[in-house]
């Protein structure tokens, strides 16, 4: 089943917590912005949405281990086989992304615009060979041609990431052309705005199939081959693009928050599994904040939409315009962090950390979440 191709956009971004939210008066119809499975990583600033109120009372200090229950299995699973390379501390001394990735092969989904295009441009500048995947065929061909004109070695493969067979065909094509894939970047995603109960069921389904299913399909198609390389001592990388919205949920963007939270869980599980296998497959998750794009202009509600939806949309676009990194700036930070061996590729900690700490205190203190409204 192919993904909807309503409005080609580059993906919503960080519908995140700590900020100010839109007025919630009235009953808006669910607005939906879809990218046809090619929209990519987060693109707007720290969402003016629901943020946790700082915990009050006797909330334990952040990071304190819970007093009850067994220790979580995550991170504690016994490794089998050889000592894992994944998650190891970065080597001493400066690490060059060009030195790590130059001459290697990268597959990037949702690559024709926004964050995906920024990652592709920077990968090309590092000297990587590129396999670019997107469902927007015309836009993908144009972008691939642009990169090829700079001297980059680029292959464009029209792909519906929600379709397992399409992603398997992408992997087959990449391995046939280049013989190997060193880096997989799961990035394609779509977005819908509106009250969670008013967003149509088919829209919810599409977002789950693209934003989570697309990543699962990428892992299933590429990781087994990466493990085979690992048996020969060759390192590979899997990078999944989540969002600040994967750590800080937002009103009016429930499907996006749900799927970006899911990407965090999927990625961390994969990281632990690579450690258990002792495989030289580094897994990293990206949590973009504000990145400049046209996503919310493209998804602007119609004239009949309730004012709170339009206001929310406009505020997110303004944050991206005024405070966002360019896709290229974002990509440079991400590649540098991944090259250093980091699991958490957080390109804009200044946007995430001030909100994450109060949220952590809220959870540890079992304080009810509060919606903070304001300008």
User: β content, as a range?
Assistant: 5-15%
Order of helices and strands: EHEHEHEHEEHEHEHHHEH
- Per DSSP E runs of 2 or more residues, the count of β-strands stands at 9
In CATH, what is the class?
Alpha Beta
Helix/strand class: alpha/beta
How are the secondary structure elements laid out?
Elements: E1 31-33, H1 97-101, E2 105-109, H2 114-125, E3 129-134, H3 137-148, E4 154-158, H4 164-178, E5 183-186, E6 191-193, H5 201-230, E7 236-241, H6 254-277, E8 281-286, H7 295-298, H8 307-323, H9 327-339, E9 344-345, H10 349-364
Parallel strand pairs: 2-3, 2-5, 3-4, 5-7, 7-8, 8-9
Antiparallel strand pairs: 1-6
Helix pairs in contact: 2-9, 4-5, 5-6
What would you note in describing this structure?
The chain is built from 10 helices and 9 strands. With 375 residues, it is an alpha/beta fold. The chain has one domain: NAD(P)-binding Rossmann-like Domain (Rossmann fold). It has a 7-stranded parallel sheet, with helices on both faces. Strands 1-6 form a two-stranded antiparallel sheet. The radius of gyration is 20 Å and the shape is globular.
Question: Summary?
Answer:
This protein is α/β, with parallel strands linked by helices and 375 residues long.
């Amino acid at each position: 089943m192919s993904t909807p191709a309503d409005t080609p956009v580059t993906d919503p971004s960080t519908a995140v917590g700590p900020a100010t939210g839109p007025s919630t008066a009235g009953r808006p119809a669910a607005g939906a912005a879809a990218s046809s499975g090619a929209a990519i990583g987060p693109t707007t600033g720290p969402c003016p949405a629901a943020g946790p109120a700082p915990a009050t009372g006797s909330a334990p200090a952040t990071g304190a281990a819970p007093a009850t229950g067994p220790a979580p299995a995550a991170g504690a699973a016994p490794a089998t086989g050889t000592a894992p390379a994944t998650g190891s501390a970065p080597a001493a001394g400066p690490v060059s992304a060009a030195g790590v990735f130059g001459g290697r092969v990268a597959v990037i989904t949702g690559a024709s615009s926004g964050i995906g295009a920024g990652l592709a441009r920077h990968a090309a500048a590092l000297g990587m060979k590129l396999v670019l995947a997107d469902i927007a065929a015309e836009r993908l061909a144009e972008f691939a041609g642009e990169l090829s004109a700079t001297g980059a070695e680029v292959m464009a493969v029209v792909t519906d990431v929600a379709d397992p067979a399409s992603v398997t065909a992408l992997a087959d094509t990449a391995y046939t052309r280049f013989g190997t894939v060193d880096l997989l970047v799961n990035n394609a995603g779509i977005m819908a705005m509106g009250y969670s109960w008013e967003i149509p069921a088919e829209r919810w389904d599409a977002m789950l199939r693209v934003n989570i299913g697309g990543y699962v399909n990428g892992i299933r198609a590429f990781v087994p081959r990466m493990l085979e390389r690992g048996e020969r001592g060759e390192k590979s990388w899997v990078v999944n693009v989540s969002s600040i919205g994967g750590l800080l949920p937002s009103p009016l963007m429930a499907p996006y928050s749900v799927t970006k939270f899911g990407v965090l869980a999927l990625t961390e599980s994969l990281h632990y599994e690579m450690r258990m296998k002792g495989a030289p497959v580094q897994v990293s998750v990206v949590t973009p904040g504000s990145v400049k794009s046209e996503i919310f202009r493209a998804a602007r509600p119609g004239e009949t939409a309730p004012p709170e939806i339009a206001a929310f949309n406009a505020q997110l676009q303004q944050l991206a315009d005024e405070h966002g990194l360019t896709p290229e700036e974002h990509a440079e930070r991400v590649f540098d962090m991944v090259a250093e061996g980091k699991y958490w590729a957080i390109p804009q900690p200044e946007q995430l950390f001030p909100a994450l700490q109060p949220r952590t205190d809220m959870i540890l203190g079992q304080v009810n979440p509060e919606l903070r409204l304001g300008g």
